[in-house]
Each structure stands twice: as structure tokens, then as C-alpha cells.
Amino acid sequence: MNTQEILNRFETVARDPAGQKDKYLAAGKKVVLMAPVYCPEEIVHAMGLVPMGAWGGDMELRDAKQYFPAFICSIVQSIVELGMRGAYEGASAIVIPSLCDSLKVLGQNWKYAVPSIPFIPMTWPQNRKPDYALDFTLAGLRRVIRDLEAATGATFDESKLAASIRVYNEHNAAMRDLVPALAAHPEITAAQRSAVFKSAWFMLKEEHTALVRELLSGLAAASPAAAKCPVTVTGILADAPGLTALLDEYGFQIVADDVAAESRQYRTDTPEDGEPLTRLARKFQAMDCCSVLYDPDKKRVEHIVALAKNSGSRAVIMAQTKFCDPEEFDYPLIRRACEDAGLPLIQIEVDRQMVNYEQARTMLETLREAL
Amino acid sequence: MFTLGVDIGSTTSKCAVLEDGASLTVTSIAVGGMGTRGPQEALDAVLAQAGLTLNDIASVVATGYGRARCPWTELQASELTCHALGAHMVFPGVRTVIDIGGQDAKVIALNGQGRMKSFLMNDKCAAGTGRFLDVMASVLQIPVEELGRRALRSEHPSAVSSTCTVFAESEVISQLANGVDLDDLAAGICASVAARTAALAKRLGVVPPLCMSGGVARNAGVRAALESALGAPVLTSELAQLLGAVGAALYAYRKQH
Asked: What is the pLDDT of residues A215-245, one digit of tens each?
């Protein structure tokens, strides 16, 4: 495939997760849904199941509202909405982690809203760094394994987990290589970039890695287009078509990201030595710089500034998921750090029900004019 | 050389003609924003006053929420950029611009040379905007222009929620039913808008001198409450509502040079 065909393939997958699910089901595989933000996908993969991201979708929320208060994250609401509308039917289970208050509510409501798809909780420790957190994390992982075995009939084998960890680390490396490669090619639109990341949630990682590597080869041989205005994007999600279209319209190029659904997923590899399940728990201990991971030092703030500086970004765009407390808590610190670093920052509110992007347009247009 | 700025807002349309990027020649305001006859009426009025036709204008820049659908130009600039330019032209040295329009509020920080440093926009909510004042004036059955005058007469402003227009409307209706004085209610309503805007300004950082732009700048009650909430004087001008159009005309001039 040439570069355009590969990009088209990513876009097709990103646009049609249901088609991907049906394809895997038709091939005799079982699908397990992975809710935001971090799930032990490697375990699901090792059991011969297909882990598939469930980050909701852009839609009008209707049925899910009976389970939620008005002022809550629309990502979790749209996951329930899709579940209630039958979009996830065929999946054998959903793993929902406990990383924020909204996700805890999602898990509890899922059991009643979508009883056909069993809910498996992944309870990560709040304090993940101390030694005692390792045992807590391992207990959480073992609970997931037990529930997966009960829900799917598949069995867990730690030697297979070692192989899956390799697959995931290889994918992490490919996704990390992807960021500077895309940054070197301004002709890749924000929408195309988003599709490459989004499609990773709906493909087996070995398949996605192969396609990303093919894209990297194609990009290496291609001549870059004229430069655009380089920016760093941060937030939970930045995949709304209305937002990426505006970034493209005003000539912005995402050259680095701190987006939870994108690069945050691929920063930390599972360590090489030790028992596979313990290594997976240690990976969680090693993770950092994320709004939903407890961090009294708020290292994420410095990380974003460094990311922007090192990537040559002229500004930082924070895609603020509406009613997302963990991100809101970080905003004042990010704002101050960006000011101190001389980096313009704008905060654009986004949610899964957004249909009017006029305010986002005004902010992006103003930023472009100011730059 | 004449340049024209057209600010098509949510409730009004404004035009300003500048000569050589420095001398403000004429301005106009028409009721009705995007999707109405307001823009055409504002254009007709400003050209008639200036004794010009569109052919005499070297460049036109549109701003405001209706900028993309302005029929006389394809050149656009965001209202934040234009209000910053207009405010710096009318109030040289101003460092913080507070713009409260019909459907949103913005705070803009400028450096000493008038260059925009940063900005914030309000939440997607009518509270703290001109729309809030329109709704409340309608509940009180008085013209919106009267809110400010009444607010200044109040000695015991009532408490009105700044969180939500719908909740605040219920509160005002309840207070009316309880016989609360109209002037005190008007003062509470103005203070509610000011509180919300002051919070936005404080998030950005308030550096004096401050000025107000946008239609709500005409409301003396909101201005007074804003000065009280921010602890600093807030400059304004008869041109406050026109600063976006003035800035657009200046932007048009600078694009030519």
C-alpha cells in the first residue's frame, strides 16, 4: 500500500469500530471492551481475546441520562449510551478501571444499563509507587483474570502473557516513533493523525504495529510539504472531527501530544525482567505524567512544557473534556508553567455531544492571528 | 485610504470606517445580528454618513460570530483580535480588555504595546452575558437599558445567582413575588453578571488599566459592580460597543500595509 492507502485504512478502521468488532467475531474471536484510561490489555491479548477500546462516541445522549447526573463526563455517558443502543453487542465483557470518579460511576451503572455484557472492574491503587502497591495491583490484575476466565471461557497462561507484553512493547515503540515522523510531514492532517491513533484501539496490536511501520517507511521516503504552525495538544480526547477540521483549517500541525487516548498510552513499556504478571504491575507503578494518575509533584506540568519546547511547538492547545475534574485540576498549573515558558496556551472545551464549534473556532482563529 | 470594519454579533451589527488606519471617520450600529437585516442596515448607515460607497473602501474585514457569512468581504479576523486592536486604539496603554457581548464574555490581556498576550472566553452558558440581562429585564418588564440606571439607585442589592440564567430567572421571579424592590433586583442582576465576569478576569490575571468593550459596557450598573468586584476602575467609552468594528477596520488597514 502507498502512504495514502495506509492512511485511508487507518481512517476506515477509526470510523467503523463496529465493523472491526464484527470482523473479529466472524473470525471466531472473542472481543473484550477496554474502557478509558488504562486497562491491562496485555492480559486480554494473552488469553487469545481481542481487546477493543470503548471510549464512547460523538452523539446525542438520550438513554444514558437516566443513569447519570447532568454535570458528568460525556465520555462515560456515551459509553453507556452505545451499550444501551446495542453497539457493543457481541462483546464478551467490558473492563472498566477505577481511575476517576466518573469511571467508578460508569462501572456501577454499566451492570444495570447493559446487563448483557459483564462488567469487570480493574481496581488500580491510588498510591501506585510504594512497594505495597505492587501487591494491590497484582490483586487487581488477578481479579481481572478470574473474571475474564468466567466471562469468556478462555484460560490464562503466564508464558503467553510474556509474548503479549512483547507485542505491546513493540507497539509502544512504533507509536513513539510515529510522533516525530508525523511531525516531519505537515501534509498529514490533524484528522489523519487522529485516525492513526484512534485505530489502535480497534485493531489487534500486532496488526496495528505492522501498519504503522509500513506508514513510517512510506513517510521516510516522502518529501514533506511546507511547514504549518506547530502545536502540542493535551487533554483526554482530541478526536472530535469538528476540532481536527478546525486545526487543519487554521493551519495548525500537531507535532506532539499529551492526549490520554493517544501518546499517554505509549510512553511506558512493561519492564523486561521478572515474572510477566509482576512486570505488568510494575509497568503501572512506572507510569506518570497523567491527570488520572495520582502525582503530588504534578510532573505532568513540566512534561507538557518540555514536550512543547522539544517539539518546536509555538503554542499548547488543551482540549478540555467538559466536567473532567482531573484535567481541570491540572489546568491552572499548566497555564502558569506555559506562561513562564513563554508558550501561549488555549483551553478549548470539548465533549461527546458537541455540535457547535463556534467558540473553538474563535479561539483557534485568535491563536493563529496572535502567532 | 478608507478601511471598513464590520462586526456581526449575535444581537447587533456594527460598522466603523477608518481613514489611514488612524482617524475614525464614522460608525453605525443596527439592531439584529447574523441572519438578519442588521448587517446590511449597519453598512448602509455607515456608508451614507461617510458619503462613500463600497468601491471607495480599500479593504473590508469582518469580525464577530457572523464574520464567515459577511457578504462584502472574505477577509476575517476573530472578535478577540479586533476588540484588542480597537481597545488599544481607543485606550492606549490598556492592559486588560473585558468584552461582554450578547452571547459571550471574553477577557483579553495585552502587553504594553497593545499586543495580545492571552485570553479567556466564558463557559458555554448565557449567565454573565448580555443575553442574561435581556432575560432578566424581560422578567422585570423593563427595557434592558433601564437595568443599569436602576441598579445605581439601589441601596440594598438583592442576591441573584451567577451560576445559571434559568435558576436566576426563577430566583428573580420569587423575589418579585416577595415584593423585593425593583432597583435592588436590578442591582443584584448587574452584580451577578459582574461576579461571573470578574471571576473570568481573575483567572486570566487582572492588570490595570482595564477597559470594557461590547454592548454590556453601556450598562453603568454592571460597570460599577465590576469595578467593585475587581477593585480597580474600568475605563469605558461611547465607542465601547464599536471596538470590535474599529479593531476590524484597523486590522484591514494593517493588512494593506
From this structure: 999 999 999 999 999 999 999 999 999 999 9
B65 interaction partners in chain A (CB closer than 8 Å) = 358, 362
In this structure, what C-alpha cell is assigned to residue B106?
471574553
According to CATH, where is 3.30.420.40 located in chain B? 1-91+239-257, 93-236
- List the strands of the sheet with A50-53, edge to edge: A50-53, A31-34, A93-97, A119-122
The CATH T-level fold of domain B1-91+239-257 is Nucleotidyltransferase; domain 5 (3.30.420)
Domain identity same for A238 and A125: no
Residue bearing cell 480597537 = B86
Q: Which residue of B has its CA nearest to A338?
A: B118
A7/A104 Cα distance (integer angstroms): 35
| A47 within a domain of the structure (yes/no) | yes
Interface ipTM above 0.85? no
Query: The domain that contains A353 carries what CATH number?
Result: 3.40.50.11900
User: How far apart are alpha carbons B61 and B254 in whole angstroms?
Assistant: 11
State which residue of chain B sits closest to A356, comparing Cα positions: B124
Based on the fold, state whether residues A57 and A119 are members of the same structural domain. yes
CB–CB contact B81 A359 (8 Å) = no
- Same structural domain for residues A322 and A275? yes
Nearest C-alpha in B relative to A332 = B203
Smallest Cβ–Cβ distance between A362 and the set B79, B116, B123 belongs to B79
A60 falls within a domain: yes
Q: Domain B93-236 - what CATH class?
A: alpha beta
In a domain, A326, yes or no: yes
Q: With an 8 Å Cβ cutoff, are A362 and B123 in contact?
A: no
Give residue-wise pLDDT tens across range B31-61. 887 778 889 999 999 999 999 999 999 999 9
**Does B121 contact A365 at a Cβ distance shorter than 8 Å?**
no
Counted residue by residue, chain B has a size of 257
What residue in B sits closest to A366 (Cα-Cα)? Answer: B78
What is the bridge-based pairing of β-strands B105-110 and B116-121?
A: antiparallel
pLDDT at B127 over 70: no
Residue in B119, B122, B167 to test binding to A, most A beta-carbons within 10 Å: B119
Q: Whole-angstrom Cα distance, residue B200 to residue B136?
A: 21
Range of the domain at A109: 16-159
Q: Is B79 on the interface with A (CB under 8 A)?
A: yes
Q: Same domain for A42 and A140?
A: yes
Alpha-carbon gap: B18 to the closest alpha carbon of chain A (Å): 21
CA distance A364 to chain B (A): 9
Q: Which three cell numbers stand for residue A369?
A: 492571528
- pLDDT (average), residues A176-190: 97
Answer yes or no: are the C-beta atoms of A320 and A335 closer than 8 Å.
no
